[in-house]
Amino acid sequence: MIRFDDVTKVYPGSKRPALSKISLEIAKGEFVFLVGASGSGKSTFLRLVLKEEKATRGVVRVAGKDVAKLSSWKVPHLRRTIGVVFQDFRLLPNKTVFENVAFALQVIGKPRHTISHTVPEVLDLVGLSGKEKRFPHELSGGEQQRVAIARAFVNRPAILLADEPTGNLDPTTSLGIMRLLDRINKTGTTVVMATHDDDIVDQMRKRVVELTDGRKIRDEDRGGYATGVIPPVPGPGTGSHPVQPTVPTVPRGQRG
Ligand SMILES: Nc1ncnc2c1ncn2[C@@H]1O[C@H](COP(=O)(O)OP(=O)(O)OP(=O)(O)O)[C@@H](O)[C@H]1O
């Protein structure tokens, strides 16, 4: 679904690459966490997928297509197959919940009758039925992020990119958002999420790709936020502070 072949990105005027020689494949339906310190290149990775930035070297493929070879009139089509969610929600403040989600369908020319039945469906999916008429300032942060996810998902994109979606939320609210992203992933949507949230990564046990200074230093199935330990599975009797087993982790592709 997403494939990087030896991709390097150097921003104009910068000496150090934001991404350096990244090769990686994300299959349809995968859930991948992108982790790494601030400035390690996570957002740049997402921008290259969206063709908001061009790779300096290497090839970025999305749904089998080399994005560098897409003519400019095909870029909106590429972006329609990708939903995006940000840390700061980016809702339209003077539109209601319904209108924020409906707008995503209006701009791609969906007819009114499609909008009137699709928007309530997706608002139900994200747990916001009954709040259609609220404005963003009348919602909690978690609810605003649910609206943003509804808007990103209403067109059933093949890929959902999330850049620090829990960055402004408390731990409990964050967990609710992660459950929602997990549900969306289970519908077949490929999810790539950049995050600094170690608790979330440790609890979810998904594929983890770690970047340092633009280089990929780890790609691990069911990984934790940090290298070297498999996160604990909370279970009966473990309480809220389960003992963390220190066992070798399994690099991607080497699992038996
Ligand atoms: N538009 C730009 N022009 C020049 N340099 C940029 C630009 N955007 C990002 N960079 C640089 O590229 C590097 C990677 O930045 P990027 O935003 O991808 O990192 P990040 O891992 O997403 O960071 P954060 O976790 O803080 O969002 C950084 O050194 C940053 O300063």
UniProtKB/TrEMBL annotation:
Residues 2-238 form the ABC transporter domain. Keywords: ATP-binding, Cell cycle, Cell division, Cell membrane, Membrane, Nucleotide-binding. It is found in: Cell membrane. SMART domains: AAA (SM00382). GO terms for molecular function: ATP binding. It holds the Pfam family ABC_tran. InterPro entries: AAA+_ATPase, ABC_transporter-like_ATP-bd, ABC_transporter-like_CS, ABC_transpr_LolD-like, Cell_div_FtsE, P-loop_NTPase. Residues 218-256 are annotated as: Disordered. GO terms for biological process: cell division. It comes from the Bacteria. It is a peripheral membrane protein. Its main location: membrane. Part of the ABC transporter FtsEX involved in cellular division. Homodimer. Forms a membrane-associated complex with FtsX. Belongs to the ABC transporter superfamily. PANTHER family: CELL DIVISION ATP-BINDING PROTEIN FTSE, IMPORT ATP-BINDING PROTEIN. This is Cell division ATP-binding protein FtsE. The gene is ftsE.
